[in-house]
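Regression test attached.
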Amino acid sequence: MTGKGGISFSLNGKAVKVDLDPMSRLLDVVREHCELPGSKEGCGEGECGACAVLLDDEPVCSCLVPLIQVRGRTVRTIEDLETGGVLDPIQEAFVEAGGVQCGACTPGILITLRALLDRNPAPNRTEVREALGGNLCRCTGYEGILRSVEALLPGGDES
Amino acid sequence: MTLAYTPSNLDEALQILADHPDTVLVAGCTDLMVVDYAMGRRHDAVLDLLAVPELHGIAVSDDAISIGATTKFREILNHAEVQKNYPMLAEVAGTVGGWQIQNRATIGGNIANASPAGDSLPVLLALGAQVEVRGAAGPRIIPYEAMHLGYRRVDLRPGELITRVRIQKPAANTVQMYKKVGTRAAQAISKVVVGLCATIVDDSVAEIRIGAGSVAATPVRLDRTEARVRGARLEPSLADEAGRIASTEVAPIDDVRSTAEYRSFVLGRVVRRMLLNMISGETGPNSTAGSGS
Ligand SMILES: Cc1cc2nc3c(=O)[nH]c(=O)nc-3n(C[C@H](O)[C@H](O)[C@H](O)COP(=O)(O)OP(=O)(O)OC[C@H]3O[C@@H](n4cnc5c(N)ncnc54)[C@H](O)[C@@H]3O)c2cc1C
Ligand code: FES
Ligand code: FES
């Protein structure tokens, strides 16, 4: 019935068990309890997307997911994009093409773009903008972000 | 610690609710946890509706669809039958917040939360939806017009929850149009939302339903506008008149987002434009787009 003895789920490929209030925000669970501070808190109200994580491969705002609802499911945070010290290509592209300014929005944007690219390896600008409709960036005006995605696409280097 | 119930079927959920009527229902939490956080609110006991399999998914039959209460807007948006025969529902689903919100926000939550700005509500009015609610005493079927009793009040009795939304398949000659006038396509708390469903026979409007949101304490049908249009010949003067009636038949809520006067004006303009589009035949899925600014 309740979270007696803890709530188990998969976090970045590892099985974890957490004994906290079942209504704890997933954002606090991963940042504080699981010591993965990459997901950021912007607004705490679902408006900015800085806290986005993948829940069973779907992007969600972790500030609006209670712990009880991840039981038995798979959570991926920004920390999981890098494998063995090697950045995900989308991370590389952000570094190269100027997708990052202050960086507050970046983890949420990168994890959301990973979900987009897994579904659609060559998205156009409209599709990228649509996917990022829930991710606010106060700094870049999205231009650097769009350029970063384009740099990843076939022929993207020439533009 | 919050006590969290995760019932494995609907009967179990209803039994828990009957035994513990103060239990708070939680679905996608995109309304609930925003308020929890803003108010520092905690709950003694919650019941996770996402755990209940019967509440989830879309069932298609020849003459209707039945959408489980915990079906997410993203699932509605991507559903082939919804896209084909209920395009305005697919469209509204795509305007509820951004991708992350659509992945969590449920149709049952949108109805139960009963914000006057809830985007799917005018569309459900226009589509003539019925809501199935269920408590220990059994199910009740509520026509959508009767669902909203007052500001943020729905026809749910203690121990009841919303189980499904049923929509009769629109006739082949039906046009569906949806318009959300807000400040941003995604994320905006809409200012005016209109859903329109009309059947055209020989250039006349045989049947019409218009639902409007954010213009009154509850989502409303535009009864007077509908009465004028029903049975009338489709022509530009009808569009003008319908727009005029629409802008005077509701009493918008005056709040900081926009003034009542502005909302009435916009409502009239949207209704007029929809009728003009019906005349010019621009009623495909793309002409019904036009959410956003
Ligand atoms: C950033 C952001 C953007 C948003 N944008 C939009 C938008 O564009 N348009 C729009 O309409 N809304 C929007 N919303 C509001 C919200 O996403 C929707 O209202 C959503 O449909 C609520 O569903 P939920 O499953 O998250 O509900 P929850 O938050 O889980 O529940 C909401 C309420 O409904 C009750 N409830 C839930 N399911 C049931 C049920 N089956 N039976 C009885 N009671 C039930 C709960 O007890 C609670 O009181 C937005 C929210 C956020 C955070
Ligand atoms: S912190 Fe979660 S959306 Fe802003
Ligand atoms: S880089 Fe600063 S908010 Fe996006």
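Expected vs. actual: identical. The longest strand of chain B covers residues 192-201.
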